[in-house]
Amino acid sequence: MSNIVSYEEREKNFDWSISEKELGYKDGDIINIGWYCSDRICEMGKADKLALIWEGLGGVEKKYTFDDIRINSNKFGAFLRGLGIKNEDRICLFMDKIPELYIGFLGVLKIGAIAQPLFSAFGDESLHVRLDNAETTAIITQRKHVGKVRKLLEKSPYLKYVIIVDHDGKKPLKERELTFDMESYEEPKDFEIFPTKAESASVLHYTSGTTGQPKGVKHVHYSLISQYLTTKWVLDLQEDDIYWCTADPGWVTGTSYGIIGCWSLGITQCVLDTGFSATSWYEFIQKRKVTMWYSAPTAIRSLMKAGDEVVKQYDLSSLRHLASVGEPLNSEAVIWSEKVYGIAFQDNYWQTETGSIMIANYPGMKVKPGSMGRPFPGITAAVVDSKTFEPLSEPGKIGLIAFRPGWPAMMRTYWENEETYKSKFKNDWYLPGDRASIDKEGYFWFVGRDDDVINTGGHLVSPFEVESALLEHEAVAESAVVAKPDEVNMEVVKAFVTLKAGYKPDDMLELSIMNFIRKKLSPLAMPQEIEYVDSLPKTRSGKIMRRLLHAKEWGEEIGDTSTLEDDE
Ligand code: PRX
Asked: Is the Cβ atom of 328 under 6 angstroms away from ligand 1?
């Protein structure tokens, strides 16, 4: 049955109770995402329906029905409980996109513990600051990532268990290490799901800001109410769909829509756990007969670069709906996708903090290429003045995006950082930190971020984190990190550094600094260019003026430099 109803119709009669009713939830009931994504689907008669079709390197394939997901997540839950892990303990999932990541996530939620997924390409420093902030009790990982975890054990006394899901018995285990084999672990009898309530914490996702360490965005089980309905209406998932969300569950799209949204609707999803290439992606769509594809602008631009010819070599006729999130989706990419796939990618906007899609284009509404679309029904959105925080009523005027708090998936706080959480609200608006304008028909047009955070290929990188890590390199005296334009990733990281006496500013050193950051933080955070400078522009109070360096990179007006110390 089609989900398509006009935007106006939905907007008119909207209430979140629509979602609650469909999920059979009433205020005060127990609500556990783990149960909703597996047990409930089985109880609805879909136990034998495929939930996950997984493909790894070399075409290796694994398939799981909803009953397999139910049983295996129970196994995860029972195993963790057996270790003494209780509700609200933070459990980190640090794995590639393997089935254990998706199923383990539900297992953690089923015992009421808090799932803390972290991108497996993170280096030991990125991992450490996030585990430290959450005082994580256990980390579930793979053999190939254990080395990074071992590096931080000594300084992480709270971390009691390192659980390896693919141990082959060859290398001896070290202190605090345990093995868990999902397939061979005995199915627990009478496994009881923890009776979480609407406001019980569920997921802790880390996101980067301009200043300070990354923030742990705390979500609750009630977020399901938003995630379920936005999946149904925006991603338009229907009973026989084969859904492919290309996002990694280390990031919010990979959990809200790569696990919770699709499985709470009982939809089959497929996962490709290999790197990106246009041919492997098209082959995957052809082989798996993907019908709904949720991806990101950087991937779409890379596909565009691969060209039109390669598209013709594959049968992509199964596709019926495409959506995109994470960074600006330029109108060229929208128009190109319509030309080569016969359907256009539809943009939507949200963030880790909002937990679910906020502004979107979707079936049932007119799409304007280059616009993020209109607020999801039930979401009150505006563009407000950056000083008064009053809504700007004039169409086309640029201001800050603002949302009235109160939708189910909104973050509840930043972990151990209530102060920063509070600072995100002004005049009863939640400010996500982005600038946009609204046109006459209520469509939102993205302009840019309102801070120095770098959005590279849809992933936020904090200049502060990279600058701090750079200072740990033996040759670096001072550094400033900004975004530089990039054709595919839109933005990449660029570092300006001054060197300590005795170091030569040459290519070898540039490589050494780049690698240092890649290993410590992640490949995303690695500067794509290092520019050696004699000094960095600073304010009179000694603060580095990133704004000036950024403006130079982007060929923009430099603006007010009256507070600069070294005004040229
Ligand atoms: O700046 C906006 C940008 O990505 C930020 C959120 O990043 P993150 O919390 O990592 O979540 C990404 C996936 C939900 C936003 O504050 N962003 C997200 N979607 C769009 C976007 N920028 C432009 N257009 C979008 N559609």
From this structure: yes
Looking at CATH, the fold of the domain delimited by 454-554 is given as GMP Synthetase; Chain A, domain 3 (3.30.300)
Look up residue 344 and give its amino acid: A
Q: What value does the mean pLDDT take over residues 68-81?
A: 98
Position in ligand 1 atom list of the atom nearest CA 432: 16
Q: Which of 217, 349, 437, 449 has most ligand 1 atoms within 8 Å of CB, for mutation? A: 349
The verdict on the CB of residue 350 being under 6 Å from ligand 1 is: yes
Distance 408 CA to ligand 1 centre (A): 19
Mean pLDDT of 449-469: 93
C-alpha 260/C-alpha 229 separation (Å) is 11
19, 228 Cβ separation under 8 angstroms: yes
Read off φ and ψ for residue 548, nearest 5 degrees. Answer: -70, -45
**For residue 363, what is the DSSP state?**
T
The structural domains of the chain, with segments of one domain joined by +, span 7-436, 454-554
Residue 384's DSSP bridge partners are 391, 400
Closest CA to 238 of 524, 4, 491, 520: 4
Q: Is pLDDT above 60 for 358? A: yes
At residue 483, the pLDDT reads 96
Q: Which two tokens stand for residue 275?
A: 């790197």
pTM of full prediction above 0.70: yes
Mean pLDDT, range 141-163, rounded to an integer: 97
Q: Residue 207, by phi and psi: left (phi above 0), alpha (psi -120 to 50) or beta?
A: beta
pLDDT interval class at 566 (50, 70, 90):
very low
Q: Write down the pLDDT at residue 568.
A: 36
Pocket test for ligand 1, best of 203, 322, 327, 437 (most atoms within 8 A of CB): 327
Is the CB of 455 inside a 6 Å radius of any atom of ligand 1? yes
Task: Look at ligand 1, atom 4, and give the residue with the nearest C-alpha.
Answer: 326
Give per-residue pLDDT as tens, 2-21. Answer: 678 888 888 888 999 999 99
Q: Please state the atom number of ligand 1 nearest to the C-alpha of residue 348.
A: 26
- Supply the residue whose CA is at minimum distance from atom 5 of ligand 1: 351
User: Could you report how far apart the first and last alpha carbons of the chain are, in Å?
Assistant: 66
How much distance in Å is there from the Cα of 544 to the middle of ligand 1? Answer: 26
> Lowest-confidence range among 9-23, 66-80, 93-107, 549-563?
549-563
User: Which fold would CATH assign to domain 7-436?
Assistant: Rossmann fold (3.40.50)
Residue 560 has pLDDT above 70, yes or no: no
Ligand 1 center to 327 CA (angstroms): 5
Say how many C-beta atoms besides its own lie within 10 A of residue 325's C-beta. 26
Residue nearest to atom 11 of ligand 1 (CA): 351
Question: Average pLDDT of 181-185?
Answer: 97
Q: Is the CB of 407 under 6 A from ligand 1?
A: no
With vertex at residue 319, the alpha carbon angle to CA 315 and CA 320, rounded to the nearest 5 degrees, is 145
Q: Helix 507-520 and helix 124-134: axis angle, to 10°?
A: 30
What's the mean per-residue pLDDT of the chain? 95
